[in-house]
Amino acid sequence: MSNDQQAKKLPLALIKTWVWMMVESKEPQIREKGRSNLINTFGSLANANTYITEKLKQSEPVD
Fold it and tell me: Domain residues for 23?
């Protein structure tokens, strides 16, 4: 299964949790685990950012 297919099957909440782990945690091991989960799933942090941004745009309510 490709990284893209794998990511599409993951709940957005899980991906957001990995971002939180990487950005907000005070524990270096937790920060690294969040970072490595994102990279292993998306291939890079840039790809993860693009995916999350697109998913969030799709979930915005339309006025």
Answer: 3-53
